[in-house]
Structures are given as C-alpha cells and as structure tokens.
Amino acid sequence: MKRVVITGMGAITPIGLNVEEFWDGIHQGKIGFSEITQFDTTDYKVKIAGNVKGFDGKNYMDPKSARRMELFCQYAVAATKEALEQSGIDMEKEDPYRIGCAIGSGTGSLKAMEREHKKLLEKGPSRVNPLLVPLMITNMAAGNVAIQFGLKGKSLNVVTACATGTNSIGEAYRSIQCGEADVMVAGGTESCVTPIGVSGFTALTALSTCNDVNRCSIPFDKDRSGFVMGEGAGVVVLEDLEHAKKRGAKILAEIVGYGCTNDAYHITSPAEDGMGAANAMKNAVAEAGIAPEEVEYINAHGTATHHNDLFETRAIKIAFGEHAYDMKVNSTKSMIGHLLGAAGAVEVIACVLQMNHDYIHQTVGLEHPDEELDLDYVQGKGIEKKFKYALTNSLGFGGHNASLLLKKYEE
Fold first, then answer.
1. 264 in the same domain as 121
2. Is residue 140 part of a domain?
3. How many structural domains are present in the chain?
C-alpha cells in the first residue's frame, strides 16, 4: 500500500480566510461567533452563527465563474486554490487524469432552494431558474473545483452529514493507497446559515439558543446547550509519498490510519455506549500499526450537544482504556462552531497545524466540565507540547463515525 502525505492546505473559516489566519485564530483562542445577518432573525430562537466574514468569491476566481456558483462552491474553490498553491503542484507537468477530487457538502445550497421555491410560489414554475439543480446539488463543489483546476481523475462527493469532510479525506486517502490516483484534492464545504437551515436544526433542538458569543459553543461544559452552526471550507492536497518526493514537495504530515463505522442505532443520536465511534478510532490506530498509548492527542467531534460530548467521551475511554486519562482532547468547534460537512476537513487542518507547531489549543469557553466528562479537555489555555500522532473524529447523523490518524512526517 502506498504511503499518503499532505502537501497543501486551504481554509475558509469564521476566524480566518486562509490557513495562516485560521492558525492565528486557534492559537489565540479567538471566537468566530457573531449575529446572523443573512436574514431577519426576529422570530428565531437562534440568532448567533459562525459566520464567514469578508469573503468575496471574485478574489479567488473570475467574476463570471463566481456568479455561476453558490457560496458553498465558492468556498471550496477558494480553499482549493490556497491548498494547490501551497502544494506547489504544476498542473502543466502532471497527468490530469491522475489527479482527483473528493470534496463533499452536507446540504449543498439551501439558499438556492429557498430562493427558487419562493419564485415557484409567487410567480409559478416557469420562473424557476433553469440552473437551480446544478446550483443546488452537493456534488457541485467537487464538480466546480475539478473544472476550475483541471482535475480529471477520480471525482467523489461523499455525503455523510457531519462526517462528510473526514470521510472525503479518508476515501481520497484510500484512493491513493490503492493506486487509483497520485494526488487527490479532498475536504468539505458548507454554507447553510439560511432560514430553513437554522429553523430545521432549531426544531431538532440541536442548536444552542444562547446568544452570548462567549458561552454559545462550550463543548464538554455542564452548561452546554447545543452546537452553533458555522460555515466555511477545508481542503487538503493528498499525495502519494513517492510522487511528492520526486517533485521536491514540502510534506506537512502523513495520514497513517482511517476508521469508519456506523452505530446502526438512531438517525440523530450517537449510540449511548460509544461502541461505534470507539471502533472507528480503534480501526484507525490498528491500521497504523501502533500501540494505542502512542496516540497523545484527539481532536474531538465535540459539538457541545449533551449526547455527543457524553457518548464521545465514553467512546474514547473504550478505545484507549486508562490511557484516555493521559491524552489531550480538545474541540475546535469551541471557536468556529460546527461547519457540518466542512467540519472534519477544517479539523484535519487544525491537527496538522498543532502538530507542526508543537501546540495544542484550548477548548475555549470550557469552565465546568460535566460530571462524567472527566478527560483532559485542555481547559483554560493552550499548551506547548510535542506530539507525533493526532487522531480526529467526526460523527454524523445517520450513525456515521469516521476517524483519521495523522502522523508528524518522518522519512
């Protein structure tokens, strides 16, 4: 099996429009929450989101292309542009059929659906935009990225709700391992802060109704009340190690394990015993061929919902036993909220950044851990720490569990 490395990263987040800004934000414990301005929230219980600020698609592509893309696609193209530039890949020197794309979105464009449904009701079916379908459907992030950058290889749109970004990177990793591609552009993207998006998750009682930006997203805290919806994109360039070395690429990290399971339990709640998530973690560690005790850090799914934080903590204890109490566990969602289909990809980038800076960021806002939540969630401030492995988890509605194990690169 081929070794797979990360050679480029790109991020659009509520705390930064590129990887450098994102790193500065998580290092400083910056909070990216603000009032929802995309629509009037007067009648809504939820008024706060992890909004992307200052983004203009025309800064990343020509205006005509930007006009023909919904925001989730623009985010994906922008993040891919940064990732490919960092990787240093020269497409003129590559076989485009050996470079693929795996970028998913959990919801596609709810905004396009809302906009055109309004036209349908007010003006009739003949006035619906003929481009509604290609604007709306989730695979258009991968499609637009492939078109913009000439990626003619394997093209995937993995949709596993909140596990989408992690599964997209995991399946891209498998594609290179098995020799189907030399390079894969992989990640997730989302832009769903819309009336129906916010209403739907609120009705599900999944969103925090706290309107204090400092206390609305507090994973593992006994006062947690739900997640804060965020938006953005995370994209990484994955590459066959030998291909990367041949062209002299700077290697940022290596992916050494991928685990994927389903709880087969409930459409929204994780399994109470944590066995599904535990087995995803165990499988990722087993693939790497290392002892569980060698993993010192976990970037948790950590949504700040009651069930997720409790059951994920149980899963970590099952997967790692007593060693779980020696590990550092944090949640990037404490700063940027839950980016749904983009969450796992952005959190992979957070893992690589922390690993390469010998630093583990704090879980911002955590003041009073719940009784059964007794692991080290990096409370109060970040810590300087060298570590070799980082495990990142994503758990999605439908029971989807995905874990990726990253390793600091060594020859």
1. no
2. yes
3. 2
pLDDT at 185: 98
Of 162, 192, 216, 260, the active-site residue reads 162
Whether 101 is catalytic: no
Instruction: For residues 140 and 226, state if they share a domain.
Output: yes
Residue 336 included in any domain: yes
Q: Of 73, 243, 338, 400, which is the active-site residue? A: 338
Tell me the per-residue pLDDT of 67-125, one tens digit each, with 9 for 90 and over: 999 999 999 999 999 999 999 999 999 999 999 999 999 999 999 999 999 999 999 99
Among the listed residues 243, 301, 361, 400, the single catalytic one is: 301
Alpha carbons 312 and 301: distance in angstroms, whole number: 8
Range of the domain at 12: 4-246
Residue 216 is among the residues annotated as catalytic for this protein: no
CATH number of the domain bearing residue 47? 3.40.47.10
Residue 253 domain-assigned (yes or no): no
Same domain, yes or no, for 43 and 88? yes
- Of the pLDDT bands very low, low, confident and very high (cuts 50, 70, 90), residue 411 is confident
Q: For the full predicted model, state whether its pTM sits above 0.85.
A: yes
Residue 210 and residue 264 in one domain: no
Does any domain span residue 51?
yes
pLDDT digits (tens, 9 = 90+) for 271-306: 999 999 999 999 999 999 999 999 999 999 999 999
Domain-terminating residue out of 214, 246, 278: 246
In the predicted model, is pLDDT for residue 403 greater than 90? yes
Does the annotation mark 301 as catalytic?
yes
Contact 347, 341 (CB under 8 A): no
329 and 211 together in one domain: no
